[in-house]
From TrEMBL:
This is AB hydrolase-1 domain-containing protein. GO terms for cellular component: membrane. Residues 15-217 form the AB hydrolase-1 domain. InterPro entries: AB_hydrolase_1, AB_hydrolase_fold, AB_hydrolase_sf. It comes from Candidatus Roizmanbacteria bacterium CG10_big_fil_rev_8_21_14_0_10_39_6.
Length: 231
């Protein structure tokens, strides 16, 4: 692990919020490459953290994270995918202790594809016409997995939550790191998110998909370490 302490990082602590279906341990290799002390936390319902409520959405998860980290000062928050949504929600609340934000693959703006819109239409139509078992054929794999894990209500609340208004409230230094082949949160979405966050920069990693921190950890951590110097 990097132990060097410099003028720009001796006072700062980093917190990582993982994506949907992930856990804190998946970020261990990234943490070993960073210039400040980082820690990743399991979100309720994932990893080792027990589910608090099956009706939570992004605001409730943000409330929980704030209670976990607000005792610290000078925080750099990294959020991937689902965790990025939560991180953006927290950043929009303008806490004095939050000094920087890193988002990766975070679908903060609800922009369902044509394919997804068709699935939604068929699912709604199926509710009126077909029996329950047949309706399941129109559901996505992610939703079916969430149902099996007891997280269906949370998944539905998270997916449809549009954070356009919140993004416009973020005024801290923000770094966006995206994979050029991200199908869950396309690059066009990242570019729109950047247009809403005033003090932000976007880096697109070639040949990477949704999990850029795993696909190219060296470049990902490199961008983060460079970003830390500017905060």
């Amino acid at each position: 692990m990097i132990q060097a302490i410099t003028w720009y990082n001796w006072y700062m602590k980093g917190i990582v919020l993982h994506g949907w279906g992930h856990n804190a341990e998946m970020w261990s290799s990234f943490i070993d490459k960073t210039a400040i002390h980082f820690s990743a936390i399991d979100l309720p319902g994932f990893g080792k953290q027990k589910l608090v409520s099956d009706s939570w959405g992004i605001p409730e998860y943000a409330d929980w994270v704030v209670k976990e980290i607000e005792k610290h000062e000078d925080i750099l928050l990294i959020g991937h995918s689902f965790g990025g949504r939560i991180a953006a929600e927290i950043a929009s609340r303008k806490f004095s202790w939050l000094k920087g934000l890193v988002l990766s693959g975070a679908p903060c703006i609800y922009r369902p594809s044509i394919k997804t819109q068709i699935k939604i239409y068929l699912a709604q139509l199926g509710k009126r016409i077909f029996p329950n078992k047949f309706q399941d054929r129109f559901l996505s794999k992610d939703l079916m997995d969430a149902r099996k894990a007891g997280l269906e209500r949370i998944f539905r609340a998270v997916v449809g939550y549009n954070q356009t208004k919140q993004l416009k409230e973020i005024d801290i230094p923000t770094l966006l790191i995206w994979g050029e082949n991200d199908s869950d949160a396309p690059v066009a979405l990242a570019q729109e998110i950047q247009s809403y966050i005033r003090n932000s920069e976007l880096h697109i990693l070639e040949h990477c998909g949704h999990n850029v921190f795993l696909e190219n950890p060296n470049l990902f951590s490199g961008y983060v370490n460079t970003f830390i110097k500017t905060i």
